[in-house]
């Protein structure tokens, strides 16, 4: 589609009360600006992002995640405001969609609706019971006249319930002719993009109102807005997954990152948290487990499992209070209370309760390799780097400090002693 997109993200976002720029605050694991970019990428190959506050930081973050995004630094000193943001921008296509960087919930479908047709301006409108904070859209005889910012409204204009949602699709000639003519003759002494509407009306150009959904176009300005947007985004993600065959027990207690993917029939029990780009295939995640940046396939985990980044579980069972990190388990079991880090565990091996891989000596991390059919007895410590070959038995309570060869038994324990009658000698007979 021959459409350019400009995303306005130069504002400071003071109401966030944060050192992090507003548009980098995350919703479902992604900065809210990325949600806007993702929606834009579905419609356009020419995307420009307008920055000013913390521009370097934001630009770096975007460039690490996306290619072919253009940046424009607004001259905020001389041209503050949403109209100032558009000054000097060069777009490639005949029509340009202008979005705000703080609208993470806008869907591709709504943007398509806003960019349809050939009118000079399509503008987004919402009808609000409480319009406060928004620019009011003045309509006369079914025709849009102009947009008046709240701070510039007369008492009567404040009562208007039709508000500007802040997204527009405009023709090239609107940008070329009207942006240079904007002025800052208003209460805030800013260059308002919204003034292009009045200019277009004066030139008898067509300005079309497109009524959009409040839920999608509400701007995120505070941490309260952020939390509310997160709930909406989570509901969307979970609804889509459930429709695709993923079961969820008490979905309102489950958190799923927008980058996570699922395949086949999966079950997520209550309280499950999925963080980052996890891939979960035909697996059962039991209650209160936390999974981060991991691949889980034909496996079950939890309740209360903690699966940290770069873990791969295939045909594996993980039980309660087991923590895994950067480990691959293929056809293995770890039923209870373990820490398994930087490890590789092969088919048929069983990790007993309380087993710890000691992967860190205070300076560096080391690997533990466990072959096939290894039985690691409960409460053993495996001091990495260490390799345990196939068909090994490690006796419970052992501290493994050396590699173990195929087919062996390893046992390291202080010999047990039993002293008969000691209890009575110590406490006396009367007890
Ligand atoms: C704007 C509209 C208002 C509309 C509302 C919808 C104007 C003048 N007003 O008001 O009619 O109801 O959005 O949410 O456009 N930005 C810049 N550079 C700037 C100022 C802002 O890039 O100098 C960016 C911000 O980062 C933000 C977007 O533009 O992403 C909107 O700015 P904001 O200050 O939130 O505009 P509102 O006052 O809410
Ligand atoms: Ca706003």
Please characterize this protein's 3D structure.
This protein is α/β, with parallel strands linked by helices. It has two domains: 4-211, Spore Coat Polysaccharide Biosynthesis Protein SpsA, Chain A (Alpha-Beta Complex), CATH 3.90.550.10; 223-410, UDP N-Acetylglucosamine Acyltransferase, domain 1 (3 Solenoid). Helix content is 19%, strand content 32%. It is built from ten helices and 36 strands. Strands 12, 13, 15, 16, 18, 19, 21, 22, 24, 26, 28, 31, 34 and 36 form a 14-stranded parallel beta sheet that branches. Strands 14-17-20-23-25-27-30-33 form an eight-stranded parallel beta sheet, with no helix packed on it. β2 and β3 (30-31) form a beta hairpin. It is elongated, with a radius of gyration of 30 Å. The mean pLDDT is 96. Bound molecules: uridine-diphosphate-N-acetylglucosamine (UD1) and calcium ion. Calcium ion (CA) binds next to loops. Residues 8-11, 50, 74, 76, 80-82, 84-85, 100-102, 134-135, 147, 149, 163-166, 192-194, 219 line the site of uridine-diphosphate-N-acetylglucosamine.
List keywords for this structure.
single chain; 431 residues; alpha/beta; Spore Coat Polysaccharide Biosynthesis Protein SpsA, Chain A; 2 domains; eight-stranded parallel beta sheet; 10 helices; binds uridine-diphosphate-N-acetylglucosamine; binds calcium ion
**Approximate strand percentage:** 25-35%
What does the largest sheet look like?
A: 14 strands, parallel
List how many beta strands DSSP finds: 36
Instruction: Identify the CATH architecture of the largest domain.
Output: Alpha-Beta Complex
The domain count comes to 2
Superfamily (CATH H level) name of the largest domain: Spore Coat Polysaccharide Biosynthesis Protein SpsA, Chain A
Shape assignment: elongated
Detail the poorly predicted runs.
Answer: none
In this entry the ligands are: uridine-diphosphate-N-acetylglucosamine, calcium ion
Briefly note the structural class of the backbone: alpha/beta
**Gyration radius, to the nearest Å?**
30 Å
End-to-end separation: 89 Å
Number of helices: 10
Q: What is the average of the pLDDT values? A: 96
**What is the CATH topology of the largest domain?**
Spore Coat Polysaccharide Biosynthesis Protein SpsA, Chain A
Helical content (DSSP H or I, runs of 4+):
10-25%
The CATH first-level class of the largest domain comes to Alpha Beta
């Amino acid at each position: 589609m021959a459409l350019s997109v400009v995303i306005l993200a130069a504002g400071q976002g003071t109401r966030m009360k944060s050192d992090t720029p507003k548009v980098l605050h995350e919703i479902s694991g992604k900065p809210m600006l990325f949600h806007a970019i993702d929606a834009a990428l579905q419609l356009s190959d020419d995307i420009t992002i307008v920055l000013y506050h913390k521009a370097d930081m934001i630009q770096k973050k975007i460039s690490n995640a996306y290619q072919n995004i253009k940046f424009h630094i607004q001259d905020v000193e001389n041209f503050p405001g949403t109209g100032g943001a558009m000054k000097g921008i060069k777009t490639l296509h005949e029509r340009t969609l202008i979005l705000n960087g703080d609208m993470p919930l806008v869907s591709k479908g709504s943007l398509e609706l806003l960019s349809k047709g050939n009118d000079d301006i399509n503008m987004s409108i919402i009808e609000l019971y409480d319009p406060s904070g928004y620019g009011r859209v003045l309509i006369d005889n079914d025709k849009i006249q102009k947009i008046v910012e709240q701070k510039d409204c007369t008492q009567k204009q404040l009562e208007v319930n039709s508000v500007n949602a802040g997204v527009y699709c405009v023709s090239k000639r609107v940008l070329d002719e009207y942006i240079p003519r904007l002025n800052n003759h208003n209460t805030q002494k800013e260059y308002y993009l919204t003034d292009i509407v009045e200019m277009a009306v004066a030139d008898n150009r067509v300005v079309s109102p497109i009524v959009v959904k409040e839920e999608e176009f509400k701007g995120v300005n505070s941490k309260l807005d952020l939390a509310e947007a997160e709930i909406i985004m989570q509901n969307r993600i979970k609804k889509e997954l459930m429709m695709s065959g993923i079961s969820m027990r008490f979905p309102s207690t489950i958190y799923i990152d927008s980058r996570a993917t699922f395949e086949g029939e999966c079950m997520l029990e209550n309280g499950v948290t999925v963080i980052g780009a996890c891939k979960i295939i035909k697996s059962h995640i039991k209650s209160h487990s936390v999974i981060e940046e991991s691949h889980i396939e034909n496996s079950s985990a939890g309740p209360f499992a903690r699966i940290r980044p770069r873990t791969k579980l295939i045909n594996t069972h993980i039980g309660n209070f087991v923590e895994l990190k950067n480990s691959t388990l293929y056809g293995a079991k770890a039923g209870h209370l373990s820490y398994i880090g930087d490890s590789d565990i092969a088919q048929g091996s069983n990790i007993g309760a309380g087993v710890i891989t000691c992967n860190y000596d205070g300076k560096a991390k080391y690997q533990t390799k466990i072959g096939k059919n290894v039985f690691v007895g409960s409460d053993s410590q495996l001091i990495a780097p260490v390799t345990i070959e196939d068909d090994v038995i490690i006796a419970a309570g052992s501290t493994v400090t050396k590699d173990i060869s195929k087919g062996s038994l390893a046992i390291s324990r202080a010999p047990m002693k039993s002293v008969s009658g000691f209890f009575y000698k110590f406490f006396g007979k009367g007890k």
